[in-house]
Automatic annotation (TrEMBL):
Name of the protein this chain belongs to: 2-keto-4-pentenoate hydratase/2-oxohepta-3-ene-1,7-dioic acid hydratase (Catechol pathway)
Keyword Nucleotidyltransferase belongs to the record: no
Organism: Tropicimonas sediminicola
Gene3D superfamilies: Fumarylacetoacetase-like, C-terminal domain
SUPFAM superfamilies hit by this protein: FAH
Family statement drawn from the similarity comment of this UniProt entry: Belongs to the FAH family.
Lineage: Bacteria, Pseudomonadati, Pseudomonadota, Alphaproteobacteria, Rhodobacterales
């Protein structure tokens, strides 16, 4: 199944995407809720709504204005180094343990919303990533059981302000500027993709300019191995998200560096999942617009 949380003529909340059309599930059952947490927790089974879905009004899927799939995820865990060629282009040694960091809520936004280049830096970079949404929580999850804990997969663009990322050994500042991490728009359940989302083309671009292009088969730590590793130290909970790292081709590694510029639209695409498109705006321009309103 494919879900898109957002607003359409049919209502606000969780939409089931059926080809080019969508049905607002939140309008069919209050148990669905405003985001995917109701389905993640198992408050309602989509199969139980099949009759209502068949009778429901449909809207164009493209007309659903996206919102975050999970409005307030408990944890957003990110892998910093998970593709060998990206590790090398950044000047790092291939790690024996994944480089992990956390994203805060204010750094996240829905697909389609502007990525904000901060006024203090022009070095806003792009990082297309596969993102995992945890369905069943747990601690010390065995790798061989880990994929049964996945609710679905979506797309993440780990927008990074590189000079702030490099100010310290901890990457927190550069990875947590407001409105730099778009997620979505669609969440696809595991049965729609290869096991562990392996072998999917993953790409970022601005217009016809291809910035990154690789396959998820190149990941050092698979989805299952990553879930097992994270759950060694932290109890995973339903609705938690894990971003699986980015392939080579990031802007800071190019000569000259290729930063995202206001007026551009960056697209992050993963085969079988979709496209997460984000216009780039300067913080100072956004502030002027908001003040005028």
């Amino acid at each position: 199944m494919r879900f898109r949380v957002g607003t359409s003529e049919a209502g606000s909340g969780v939409h089931l995407v059926l080809g080019d059309e969508a049905v607002c599930l939140s309008g069919l059952s209050g148990a669905v809720g405003a985001d995917l947490m109701g389905l993640v927790r198992g408050d309602v089974d989509v199969a139980s709504l099949s009759d209502a879905i068949s009778r429901a009004d449909r809207v164009a899927a493209a007309s659903v204005v996206p919102a975050l799939p999970i409005a307030r995820p408990g944890k957003v865990v990110c892998l910093g180094l998970n593709y060998v060629d990206h590790i090398k282009e950044g000047g790092y040694e291939v790690p024996v343990y994944p480089a992990l960091f956390l994203r805060c809520q204010t750094s996240l936004m829905a697909a389609g919303e502007p990525m904000v280049r901060p006024s203090c830096s022009e070095r806003l970079d792009y990082e297309v990533e596969l993102m995992v949404i945890i369905g069943k929580g747990g601690k010390h999850i065995p790798e061989e059981e880990a994929l049964s804990h996945v609710f679905g997969y979506t797309i993440f663009n780990d927008g990074s302000v590189r000079d702030y990322q490099r100010k310290t050994h901890q990457w927190t500042p550069g990875k947590n500027f407001d409105a730099t991490g778009p997620i979505g728009p669609d969440v696809v359940t595991p049965d729609e993709l290869p096991e562990g989302a392996v072998g999917l083309k993953i790409e970022s671009r601005v217009g016809d300019e291809i910035l990154q292009s690789a396959t998820t088969s190149d990941m050092l730590w698979s989805v299952a191995r990553t879930i097992a590793t994270v759950s060694e130290y932290s109890t995973l909970e339903p609705g938690d998200m894990i971003a699986m790292g980015t392939p080579p081709g990031v802007g800071h590694a190019k000569t000259p560096p290729r930063w995202l510029r206001p007026g551009e639209t960056v697209e992050a695409e993963i085969e079988g999942i979709g496209i997460c498109a984000s216009p780039i705006v300067a913080e100072e321009d956004l502030a002027r617009t908001e003040a005028a309103e």
